[in-house]
Specification:
heterodimer, A: 242 residues, mainly beta, 2 domains, 29% strand, B: Immunoglobulin-like, 3 domains, five-stranded mixed beta sheet, four-stranded mixed beta sheet, elongated, DUF4397 domain-containing protein (chain B), DUF4397 (chain B)
């Protein structure tokens, strides 16, 4: 949390006052009073979270039910998956990553965490790896693919990762044959000491991808690079199952 | 292991957008959408402030998803258009009861959501609402209630990453047959109590995994099986079914990387590094390093000096009649012995040929 309670309260009070002014200006009827918006985070009573009523009162259609799409009786709800969704259910594992703009076409190792919680890199310097303890590419959440920038003797699979730019496409082939296409949003280089765990691995509402390698200065004593390069990408298409 | 207290040149400044987004005022204007355009429409305007802490400067879009939660309303078409200009941004068709769309990424701004029966006329929406999207904040806009009393709600969805091993879940009560509903796990852990119609609860944390849930609403009871993966954030929509009972629809709101890794990844061995650094931290190590360095410099000096000396001798060999192995002349040779001079001249010629040959072959052999 980056806000102090004090500033949240001040902001909330201001917002509430403004809401009240607008309420008056628009001459709304008092039939509906603004209530606390349901949802959001813990119910601390923070007025900053106060919001317009959950719902506005509907006006009854004067013209019967036909033009309003009324069915006259209850229906069974659609309990299936979201319509218009480009996401997958996460059951299909990724098998290959392709990034044409930097010449990457690699199979994927299955990556795990070590005892301290750090993500272990691929064993093979020539191969990228997918963090199998996380979400699958194409499913909601940040799927994580990591690869080495170099070995001790020369370039490795993600040697040119830092040259990716916003708009570049990244393809991930799933075990069921579908190809999820992601589009690069941004690329950051950041000290491992300051690694933004929440930003990279934290919750997101859409299917996204993180590509991770190393960068910056190599510390000869530590035996590692001091920085990580992280590519943030969002899913923009998924091919139908062949 | 060296410890790294290096102050990184972080590229990210995550605070400003959150502050900017939070400054958006909460406003409501309920406009009776009467007259020529849509006599039957209900139009609401709902602007939401983002949850503190969720947005980051790097995230430039917000997200919106749409839900049809009215049990006696047929499938609908839904249009999302920018309030300014009226450009249609998204269009969904034939969305049936219970359907919840995926999130659509939207530029911050105010949008109008309009619903019509499938194939209907968008100049006469059955419900219409405007909603303000801010960067980094996901929202759910739902139409709920019975068809004759259709209402719209906008819920602010949550992006707080669940603690390790946990999932987060809330309830949206959209059933029309019971006034309130309570949801608890079969093990007795309460998720939401006495939730009124149209209300979305706060999120509760439960251990990730499969759960059997009990829905209780007075005499009406129901159970549902849900799988709440660790690291996931979900909404449980309480709905009606065709036979007068309750149904539960779990929908994934968002997800973290599951079993969350911590910190960076060691994805390089330095073979191509342009810049190397040494970060030895204790003085003993430094003394050893200095000592090693001094010995190395000394050894290098000896090698270089020796090499230069040998090279100078070799270069001077053509000027001098004496090769090192010929310096010590046999005692038997007499200084004025002609044969001695002849022998010496001959050997010298042979030696010079040999040195020239060595010099020519030398560089390739040394490689």
């Amino acid at each position: 949390m980056r806000f102090t309670i004090g500033s949240a309260v001040v902001r909330g009070v201001a917002a509430l006052m403004l809401a009240g002014v607008l309420w008056g200006v628009t001459g709304c009827s008092t039939a509906v009073s603004p209530g606390a918006l349901p949802g959001g985070e813990s119910g601390t009573g923070d007025p900053g979270r106060a919001a317009p009523g959950t719902a506005a009162p509907g006006t009854t259609s004067p013209g019967g039910t036909a033009d309003r799409g009324g069915t006259g009786s209850f229906q069974d709800p659609d309990l299936g998956t979201a319509p218009g969704s480009a996401v997958v259910d996460g059951s299909a594992k990724p098998v290959r990553v392709q990034i044409a703009s930097i010449g990457v076409d690699s199979a994927l190792e299955s990556l795990k965490k070590d005892g301290s919680g750090s993500l272990l890199p691929p064993v093979d310097f020539a191969s990228a790896g997918w963090y199998s303890g996380g979400v699958a590419p194409g499913a909601v959440g940040p799927a994580v693919i990591a690869g080495h920038i170099d070995s001790s003797v020369g370039p490795a699979v993600f040697y040119r990762l830092s040259s990716l730019a916003a708009g570049d496409p990244v393809g991930v082939t799933l075990a069921d044959g579908r190809v999820a296409t992601f589009t690069v949003d941004r690329v950051i280089q950041i000290a491992k000491a300051d690694f933004p765990t929440a930003e990279v691995y934290g919750a997101v509402p859409t299917a996204q991808l993180r590509l991770i390698t190393c960068g910056g200065v190599f510390d000869d004593d530590w035996g590692h690079y001091l920085d990580n390069v992280v590519v943030f990408a969002s899913e923009t298409a998924i091919s139908p199952q062949p | 292991m060296a410890s790294h207290s290096r102050t990184g040149s972080s590229l990210t400044g995550r605070l400003p957008a959150a502050v900017a987004a939070a400054s958006i005022a909460l406003a409501v204007s309920l406009l009776g959408f009467g007259g020529a355009t849509a006599s039957a429409a209900t139009t609401t305007s709902i602007a939401l402030a983002p949850a503190a802490g969720a947005p980051t400067a790097a995230v430039t879009t917000g997200w919106l998803r749409l839900a049809h939660l009215s049990p006696d309303t047929s499938a609908v078409d839904i249009r999302l258009s920018a309030l300014a200009g009226g450009t249609v941004t998204q269009s969904l068709s034939n969305i049936g009861y219970g359907a919840v769309s995926a999130y659509m990424a939207l530029s911050p701004g105010t949008y109008v959501v309009a619903m019509v029966p499938t194939g209907g006329d968008f100049t006469q929406p059955i419900i219409q609402t405007s909603v303000t999207v801010v960067a980094g904040q996901p929202l759910t806009v739902a139409a709920f209630g019975k068809n004759a009393d259709l209402r719209a709600a906008a819920y602010r969805d949550d992006l707080t990453t669940p603690p390790a091993g946990q999932s987060r879940v809330r309830v949206v009560q959209a059933s029309t047959i019971v006034p309130t509903v309570s949801v608890a796990t079969s093990t007795g852990r309460s998720i939401a109590t006495d939730v009124a119609q149209g209300v979305a609860t706060d999120y509760a944390s439960v251990p990730g995994g499969p759960w059997k849930l009990d829905l209780t609403a007075g005499a009406v009871q129901s159970t549902a099986d849900v799988d709440l993966a660790q690291g996931s954030i979900s909404t449980l929509f309480v709905l009606d079914n065709a036979s007068g009972g309750l149904a539960l629809k779990p929908v994934l709101d968002s997800s973290s990387a599951g079993d969350l890794p911590v910190g960076g990844v060691q994805t390089g061995a330095g073979g191509t590094a342009l810049v190397h650094a040494s970060a030895a931290e204790d003085s003993n190590r430094r003394i050893i390093d200095i000592g090693t360095g001094a010995v190395s410099v000394l050894a290098a000096a000896i090698v270089i000096f020796g090499h230069r000396r040998r090279t100078r001798l070799a270069q001077s060999s053509s000027d001098s009649p004496h090769q090192p192995q010929f310096r010590r002349l046999p005692e038997s040779y007499q200084k004025h012995d002609r044969q001695w001079y002849d022998n010496l001249a001959h050997e010298r010629q042979e030696r010079e040929r040999e040195v020239r040959g060595d010099a020519a072959a030398g560089p390739s052999e040394r490689r």
